[in-house]
Design brief:
211 residues, Rossmann fold, 8 helices
Length: 211
C-alpha cells in the first residue's frame, strides 16, 4: 500500500479503513505485475507472507497458484474485503489485522515474502520492517519487493508525496546487503491497478534470496 498524503501517516489504520470502505477494490483485484512476473521463484506448497496486502489482490492470486499464503494489513476494512475475495475465488489465505510492528513475524518461517508498495513506512519503520522481513525468511527464502522511486514525485500517479518514503537502489542494496540480490531494476511503466495506482510511474523492483 502507499498513502495519499501527510494525514495518512498520523492515523494509518483510520486512513486505510476509509480508503477501503467502498465496494470497489481500490487497487483492483489483479496481482501486481512485478509480483506476477517474479512469482516463479516460489513453488506450490511453499509458505509465503504478503506484507500490508490491503484488500488481498496479491495474496489471493498467490494462493490460487498453490502456495500457502499468510497476509496482514493494518485496516480491518481491507482485510474483510480480502477475505471476501479469497472466498469468491475459492482459496484459503491466513489473513490477520495487524500493523508492521504488531505482526508476530515468526522467525525463519517463510519460503517467500511479497512486499509490494509498502511505502507508508517512514525511515524508522522501514528499517524495522526490512529487518523483520529478513528474520522471517528461511535460508534460501526469496523476497519479491516493489516500490516507487523519488522520480515518482513528478508523476503523482500513486504513492506518498514524501521523498523519505521512496526507494532507491542504494537504499535497497544497503538494507538487504546480507541477502543475495538476484535482480534490482529501476524503470518506468504504465501502471493500472484500480484507481489507487494509475498512470506513468517511476518504479523499482527487487528480488533477493536469503543466504
Amino acid at each position: 500500500m502507499s498513502g495519499p498524503g501527510d494525514t495518512a501517516f498520523s492515523d494509518p489504520a483510520g486512513t486505510w479503513n476509509r480508503r477501503f470502505a467502498g465496494d470497489d477494490y481500490l487497487f483492483g483485484t489483479a496481482p501486481n505485475v512485478w509480483l506476477s512476473d517474479q512469482a516463479h521463484h516460489w513453488l506450490p506448497g511453499q509458505r509465503v507472507l504478503c506484507v500490508a496486502d490491503g484488500e488481498g489482490r496479491n495474496s489471493v492470486w498467490l494462493a490460487r497458484r498453490g502456495l500457502q499464503v499468510e497476509a496482514f494489513d493494518i485496516a480491518e476494512q481491507g482485510v474483510a474485503k480480502a477475505r471476501r475475495l479469497a472466498s469468491a475465488q475459492g482459496v484459503a489465505v491466513n489473513f490477520q489485522v495487524a500493523s508492521c510492528d504488531d505482526y508476530a513475524w515468526p522467525r525463519a518461517a517463510f519460503d517467500g515474502v511479497a512486499a509490494i508498495f509498502v511505502q507508508f513506512a517512514d525511515p524508522a519503520l522501514r528499517e524495522r520492517l526490512f529487518a523483520h522481513i529478513q528474520r522471517c525468511l528461511k535460508p534460501g527464502g526469496v523476497l519479491v519487493l516493489q516500490g516507487y522511486t523519488p522520480k515518482q514525485l513528478e508523476y503523482g500517479t500513486g504513492g506518498p508525496p514524501l521523498a523519505s518514503h521512496l526507494y532507491t537502489p542504494t537504499m535497497l542494496r544497503e538494507a538487504f546487503g546480507a541477502m543475495e540480490i538476484i535482480e534490482l531494476v529501476e524503470y518506468e511503466a504504465e501502471v493500472a491497478e484500480g484507481t489507487g495506482h494509475h498512470g506513468r510511474s517511476a518504479l523499482i523492483g527487487m528480488v533477493a534470496r536469503l543466504r
